[in-house]
Each structure stands twice: as structure tokens, then as C-alpha cells.
Protein: Phospholipid scramblase
Organism: Folsomia candida
Amino acid sequence: MIIKQEPELMEIFCHCEGKNRYSIRDEHGREFMRATENTCCCYMRCCCCTNRRPFNFTVDDFDEHEIYLDRKVSCNSCFFPRCMNKVVVTAKNGETLGFEKQRWSMCKTYFNIKGGNSEKVLRISGPCCTTSCCCGNIKFTIKDMDGHQVGSISKEWGGIIQESFTDIDNFCITFPVDLDVKIKAVLVAATILIDYMFFENTKEPKP
């Protein structure tokens, strides 16, 4: 899957954090889902919590099928292990599809991908440094419970202008063909959380 963050005019011209929106596309670039942030408090987005803010996303497939991503306010610091990031993914009928939960670590970033019954399905490990070097991509590795790599979440280099002047980010997700569709939904949630944790509000506005 390809997840492309859509540009916000308010951010470009006013340097004010708007609601995030993402276009979710297949490997051929065809859009089949869209994720829209429902956070309504401008103060929370711009001044109070910024990228640590709680969020709720609606992900729809243009055919009245929806899933919801929910994160409470959290802390990215390793000094507060009880306040790690967690995203809950639910269906329109209220069924819990799965969870993404950050694991405590001093250096690298780790996440557990869990099913609806809290069973561990996959693990995600991030690099020690999430700053793009030499105009390259930044990769988070997806592994099964036996430690074998089965995919990745890659933050794609968007070019010098996009990377320097905006926080618009594009991601590519690879995973096994036969992966449960519910876990695919959790990987979408994982990608959005990774964007918030490491790439949201990381650029200083330029006058």
C-alpha cells in the first residue's frame, strides 16, 4: 500500500496545524481508501499537544465501509514507560479489529501489532535515527513473532522542498499477500502513528 498525506493550505500559508488527511492507494497508485482526522480542537493541534495529541481517524473505502483509529494523549519519552503510544482499530459495528502498542525502549522504537483478542501477530522495529540522511528513505521493519522480516513501512523521501518546508509525508507499506485484512488495517494505523511520532511538526516554518 501507498499512504500519501494530502497538503493542507492552512499549514502552507499560515503555518497553522490543520487536520491531517491521507490517501491510501494500491501498488498501482489507485486510491481505494481515505483517512481523515476528526480532531476538532485547533488549540490542541497547534499549541498544546501538537504531534502528541489524541486523535480519531475515520478510514472509509467510498462504499460506506468505515473503520476508526483512536489514540489517547501520549508521551514519546522513554522516561515515561506507562505512557507509551497505543492505537485501537475498530469497525463500524463496534468490533475491535486490533491494536498497535508501542514497546518501551531506551534507543530504538518498537511496536507490537495485535489482533482483536490482544494476541501478538507482528512486531515493528524502527531505526535509531529517524532523520533522513543523503536524501534517503527511512525504513521501519515488520517481523513475524519468530523474528523473520515479512515487510516494512518506509517513509519515502519527498524531495528537498517538501522535506524542508512542509510536514507532508508519503509512506510505502509492504506485507505478506495472505495477511489478514484486519491486520492490514492495523498496519495503516501503525503508519499514521509513525508519521505523528517522528515526522509531524518536525520542520520549522520558513518566513
